[in-house]
Structure prediction request, 284 residues.
Amino acid sequence: MTQSFVLTLACPDRLGIVHAVAGFLTQRACNIVDSQQFGDRDSGRFFMRVQFETDNEQADRENLKVGFAPVGGAFGMDWSLNDAATPCRVLLLVSRFGHCLNDLLYRTQIGALNIVVTGVVSNHTDFEGVAVAAGLPFHHVPVTPETKPAAEAQLLDIVAANQVDLVVLARYMQVLSDDVCHKLPGHIINIHHSFLPGFKGSKPYHQAHERGVKLIGATAHYVTGELDEGPIIEQEVARVDHSLGPDALVAVGRDMECLALARAVQWHAEHRVLLNGNRTVVFR
Prediction:
C-alpha cells in the first residue's frame, strides 16, 4: 500500500540541506512527488516542504521520524513529518456573523478541504441550528469580562477533549487572552478586514466608505498575544468605487473574508505554512 507523507522544515541556511533530505528519503525507497524550498536572505533561514510516497512497509511515520531525527539535529532543524492522508482536526469559533462558518462547512462537505470539523463554539446561540444541521456538536460558551477566564478554560478543555489541531476564529468577536495564544502557538487562525490600523473600532466598512477607499479586502493570520498583529497567511482584495454604499462594501468584504480564510485553512491543513518570525512562508 502506498503511503504519502509531508516533511516540513526550517533551519539556518547552509550547504547540504537538500542533499541530506533527498539522500535520507532515497535510502528508504521514498519517491519525492513535490518539493519546494526557500532561502530567506534577511533571516538567514532555509525553509522546505517535501511531499513523498513510499511502498516500503518499514517506512511508516514513526520509523521515518526516528530515522530523520539525526538529520534534523545535525542541521538544527525545526521539522515536522505528517501523514498527508490524515485530515486536520478543526474547531470553529463564531459569534453573530455566519458567512465564514457556512463557507467552511460547505467546503468541508464537498471535500474541498482536508479537514474534520470537530465542533462549533460560540458565545451566542445564533448558529446552533447550523451546527446541528451539519451533525456537529455545538458548544455555547458565553463570555463576559467576569467569566472570561472560566470561558477560556472551557474552550481549552474542548480543544483537548477533541484532539483539535487548529482553532479557526470564523468571525469570533472575542479577543483571546495571552494565555490561550501561548498555549496554542501557530494553531489559531483569525480573519478580519484589511483596514487595520487605518479604520479601527466599529463599522470599518462605513469608515472606509466615508474615506472613499478604492480597495478593500480581508486578512487571514495566525493569532498571537498582540491583537491582529500575528503572522499573515493570506490576503484577498477587491477594487471598489464611489457607487458602492456601506452595505455593498460589507457584502464585498464578506466574500473576501470567506476566500482568504478558506485558503489559509486549506494551506495550514496541507502543511504549506511555515512560520518565519513575524512572517510566514507559504508553499502554494
User: Anything to note?
Assistant: The mean pLDDT is 95. The chain has eight helices and 13 strands. The first strand starts at residue 3 and ends at 12. The two ends are 27 Å apart (CA to CA).
